[in-house]
Amino acid sequence: MNEKITNDYLLKDKHAEWTENKRYKHRIKDTLDKALKEHPRTLVLKIELCIPDSIYNPDSTLMTRFIASLDAQIAADIQKRSNNGVRVHPCTLRFVWVREFHQDGRKHYHVALFINKDTYAFPGTYYPDEKGKYTHNLSLMIMDAWIRTLRLDKDVDYQKHYWLINFADNFYFHLNKNQLSFISSYPLVLDRLRYLAKNITKDYSDGQRSFGCSQY
């Protein structure tokens, strides 16, 4: 990638009110670049995963299980499309997550997901229709993955827990290495992702991991 973009991103703390973890910033950029190398058309999503109460706070396996659940759902969805005669594309799920804390001490996670845009062009709606039904799409798979991770999917009305997954405004972005707009859109997406590297809401004192990302 452009050396100036790299230097601007890695070497400068943009926000005066907080410092940024430079190792995290490097890993975020590296993960995005690996995604783009395999999938030149990449869908980038930013979500927040909340935890309902302190019973899950000591559990350090949450993110591993969340990614495994989502990855399995994506693989099953692609296989179903293929079985139905629909053209499918390979899709390597890449991710970055950070553990953060609210002022009252409650733990939550911010997650960036990197997905082949040729497989999922858009995340889809994350709210029910007028009949209370949810459309099966990427957003629903994300919500189901987190509910399963928290072992809340056994509830008869488990969908009431979907509020634990927060899709903010403008939570997804498209990058296309083959378009001229990539020159300007790439640093903008990096700038949105640098929020994950801020130190102010991290707690490094309890021995648990505060950061994780794809190793491939």
Keyphrases for this structure?
alpha+beta, 18% strand, YagK_YfjJ_C, Inovirus Gp2 family protein, 6 strands, 216 residues, globular
Alpha-carbon Rg, integer: 18 Å
Q: Span from first to last CA?
A: 18 Å
Number of helical segments with 4 or more residues: 5
Helix content: 25-40%
Task: Report the major sheet.
Answer: 6 strands, antiparallel
Shape: globular
- Give the SSE order as H and E letters: HHEHEEHEEHE
What is the number of strand segments?
6
Uncertain runs are none
Q: Which class do the helix and strand fractions yield?
A: alpha+beta
Strand portion, in percent?
Answer: 15-25%
What is the average per-residue confidence, as pLDDT, rounded to a whole number? 90
Number of domains: 1
Q: Any overview of this molecule?
A:
With 216 residues, the protein is an alpha+beta fold. It has one domain (3-213). The chain is built from 5 helices and 6 strands. The chain has helices spanning 3-11, 22-38, 62-83, 138-149, 182-193; strands at 41-50, 94-101, 107-116, 165-166, 172-176, 211-213. Strands 1, 2, 3, 4, 5 and 6 form a 6-stranded antiparallel beta sheet that branches. Helix 3 packs across helix 4 (138-149). The radius of gyration is 18 Å and the shape is globular. The chain starts with a helix and ends with a strand. The relative contact order is 0.24. The mean pLDDT is 90.
